[in-house]
Amino acid sequence: RKEVEQDPGPFNVPEGATVAFNCTYSNSASQSFFWYRQDCRKEPKLLMSVYSSGNEDGRFTAQLNRASQYISLLIRDSKLSDSATYLCVFYNTNAGKSTFGDGTTLTVKP
Amino acid sequence: NAGVMQNPRHLVRRRGQEARLRCSPMKGHSHVYWYRQLPEEGLKFMVYLQKENIIDESGMPKERFSAEFPKEGPSILRIQQVVRGDSAAYFCASSPSAVGDNSPLHFGNGTRLTVT
After folding, report:
1. A12 close to B (CB below 8 A)
2. pLDDT tens figures, A7-66
3. What's the pLDDT score for residue B99?
4. Is A97 within 8 Å of chain B by CB?
5. What's residue A56's pLDDT?
6. Residues of A in contact with B102 (CB under 8 A)
7. Helices (DSSP H) in chain A: which residue ranges?
8. Which residues pair with A106 in a beta bridge?
9. Does A99 touch chain B (CB under 8 A)?
10. C-alpha to C-alpha distance for B90 and B21, rounded to whole angstroms
11. Phi and psi based region of residue A81 (left: phi greater than 0; alpha: psi -120 to 50; beta: remaining)
């Protein structure tokens, strides 16, 4: 079983739609969680950290469910500029490294 | 503040040659990570280094690949006797401390290696 499982998509949604991605992890030692965004295979950029209590940044909401070992990202009122690949990232303190999911591709259409 | 600097941006090598990829972390960052992204695939961890120490190289191929982060100068990822399967984007990332402090990774622009 892969350490990180992420639905590759693609997700094709119209502008204004709400879309959600999940990402599951198998290593319970994972301690820090992030969502990154990658455009056209350029360098990944941090979108947001994920906190146990859940957190929101504008149209983006991230949540963590430790019991079920997954994190989620919700995007409301999708914009064309949201089209990208979204990567979930888990940091394992014991191993000292971050593990990336393979990414979920989102395309927002007019 | 300069971000993570990688060079070259693009590198073309013939089979059997050596490739040297450089990464200068952000100022104040002492933790460096190398990732590889093969065509149509996700980011794969290769190696995690601190100054003069390799902390975790579990993602590095056993042969031909090596990495260093000397006391002075950039981190270097070295690939000897390159083969076509080494063609990929190589990303370097840095953080000011262990990522467990909720310090996210900051990525460089990457080096696109093409082996002909």
Report:
1. no
2. 888 899 999 999 999 999 887 776 788 999 999 889 999 999 998 888 999 999 999 998
3. 53
4. yes
5. 93
6. 32, 49
7. none
8. A11, A84
9. yes
10. 8
11. alpha
